[in-house]
Amino acid sequence: MTLSRRGTRSDRALRPRERAEKRAVVAVTIRDVARQAEVSVATVSRALSAPDLVRPATRDRVLAVAAELGYQPNRAARSLITGRTGNIGIVVPDLENPFFTGVLKGLQARARQADYAVFVSDSDEDPTAEAMLVRAMAKQVDGIVLAAPALDDDQLYAIAEDTSLVLLNRRLRGISAALMNSAAGMRQVLEHLVALGHRRCGYLHGPRTSWSNRERRRGLRAAATQHGVELVELGPFPPRYEGGLQAADLAVAADVTAIIAYNDIMALGVLARLRDRGIPVPEAVSVTGFDDLVFASLCSPPLTTVAMPLGQAGRLAVDLLLEHIASDRTEISQVDLETQLIVRGTTSTPATN
Amino acid sequence: MTLSRRGTRSDRALRPRERAEKRAVVAVTIRDVARQAEVSVATVSRALSAPDLVRPATRDRVLAVAAELGYQPNRAARSLITGRTGNIGIVVPDLENPFFTGVLKGLQARARQADYAVFVSDSDEDPTAEAMLVRAMAKQVDGIVLAAPALDDDQLYAIAEDTSLVLLNRRLRGISAALMNSAAGMRQVLEHLVALGHRRCGYLHGPRTSWSNRERRRGLRAAATQHGVELVELGPFPPRYEGGLQAADLAVAADVTAIIAYNDIMALGVLARLRDRGIPVPEAVSVTGFDDLVFASLCSPPLTTVAMPLGQAGRLAVDLLLEHIASDRTEISQVDLETQLIVRGTTSTPATN
DNA sequence: TTCACGACAGAAAACCTTTACATCACGGTG
DNA sequence: CACCGTGATGTAAAGGTTTTCTGTCGTGAA
């Protein structure tokens, strides 16, 4: 299957540009630097990692030689003795979901600033795979960020037992977390709809096990009760485009005036399905999403949704993780980031029939 | 700035679930297994990595003990002596571009199958950053995939000199590459437009330095010449939504009947701008994209575009890289993957005025 | 019976770095 | 003048694994 669409396999033996001494790249070690600078290896090591322990004159000489030789410490050797790897890992449910790549982008940038490299894995929304990936990663990172994990509480606690862990969009007592206040975002959504005059709204559930889904529902129900709005719950649906297609028909049948989708991708599916069925948005029914993906503003009509601080959450996750590591795994913090309703073209006053 | 939107920092000292013996996790080493199985460490090592060198009875005993103790080889120690890390790296220009995350997803999955972990870095389309990231990565991976690199040929050759390298969407003599046949895709686009009756088309350039851009233009020009179509070249523009907004006006002013965008994101920008100006698509002007992002089918009208084998390219890149590594860096292959025109709603016969 | 050889397992070196400890010189204090 | 503290550097151990070299044992052939 993989091969089926492959084209011609050409140039099997292209001339490499320079074959000579490719093998001769033996990597310069700390001994080479020591010899050249006429000091011991210990001094070189110190000059690089604890500069104030060595006399300035010596330090400068060592550093000069190191630079000249292009010395790069061998990370394997270093981490063998220090127990630190200089890496962090993140496992996300779906790399094709812009929500997670937004987080990943911020996380990657911050990690780089702190001189950490980042491993990434995609669990395909499968809890079993998630656990496996974490286990595989654990040995070669200083800590792991788990984005919207599907694992249950006990398994997460078990993981936190022997590796530094930060959760993203999942709150669990005793484990650091970067959280986005979805409940507040959903409250804003509902109050927006109430202001427009809606009295019967449908919520399209995301995955039942998802913390975010529970949070969003919680915020929604609280606000609905408070404002005396009838809330029809539908689903759960897969949090994907196809889920939205499927959900749209159910929502229409449930005779609601507004459809509140678990996330933008589902909302886009809903919009597509409604368009196919000739049901005008927002005239016949209002639709809202959640996440504010770039593409939410590009469809027509542009989607009313809730903006999430994705990059910020990614950066925060790194900060929390490094804090946790630096404090010998004793420091725990959970930080809530605020979300923001973005009103666009898919919401208006309900049809008067 | 980072802190500005943070909410309350709570629960500074939540009770960790189980504090006792968190420190006692000392990791079981090969010696422990050896002692328990009453063999030497050498035998344990062999039982795990070269099973046929040890008598079945012994091997089974060792394996049983290893499993019982939950032994996991220390990768740092292993790579210290073998020189292999078991990691590969990929650097992409933009993690928020679905094109690259599509590739990343496939790449990650394949790497996992082969028991490799993957480092990811985002260069933010900056060649300098790109070079830096590669250098930083080089020491801790067995090979690197460079997606649509912005670096110039010489720098790429320099990198290939001392690390295994696979390029994605960039062809360079003597370096392995996974390529998508954009030229053929663009030929299909133009022939589609010709068939509809278009005779004067505008091409919106992507970044001038981009190999993909040159390829697309090449395919387009060849087909245009062959079919006697007038091709107006505009740009370059940034390959983003904003670039499309900007390009749309220029294309309209150039009085073409069809706008061929460098990629989908730009095409979406074009569509948005045309909508704002009240220019109907495809009645007044046809528009095409390139990449077939999920969202290309969700806008209205849905975008005519060219599908790229993203996941396949990611998997292929891993295969090429591992092949290159396994062959002692002597094997070079360049593989072209086919692209596919997807006709949707943004193309039709030209306006007859 | 002896010898050669193969199959198996152990001992030890090697990979490169960090760091605890030792050494040394020097200046100050009692 | 003896002693001590301090700052700068060197020595060597340690970290966990792979791999080469060596040794042992048993088997089959001469």
- What is the CATH-assigned architecture of the largest domain in chain A? 3-Layer(aba) Sandwich
Total discrete domains of chain A: 3
Classify the oligomer: homodimer
Helicity of chain A, as a percent range: 40-55%
Give the H and E element order of chain A.
EHHHHEHEHEHEEHEHEHEHEEHEE
* Strand count of chain A: 13
Strand count, sense and barrel status of the largest sheet of chain A are: 6 strands, parallel
Mean model confidence by pLDDT of chain A: 89
Q: Helix segment count of chain A?
A: 12
> Shape of chain A from CA axes?
elongated
What is the CATH top level name of the largest domain in chain A? Alpha Beta
Q: How much is the radius of gyration of chain A in Å? A: 26 Å
User: Termini distance of chain A?
Assistant: 53 Å
Strand order of the largest sheet of chain A: 3-2-4-5-6-12
The CATH topology of the largest domain in chain A is Rossmann fold
Please state roughly what percent of the residues of chain A sit in beta strands, choosing from under 5%, 5-15%, 15-25%, 25-35%, 35-45% or over 45%.
15-25%
Which terms summarize this structure?
homodimer, 353 residues, alpha/beta, 434 Repressor (Amino-terminal Domain), Rossmann fold, 3 domains, 12 helices, DNA-binding
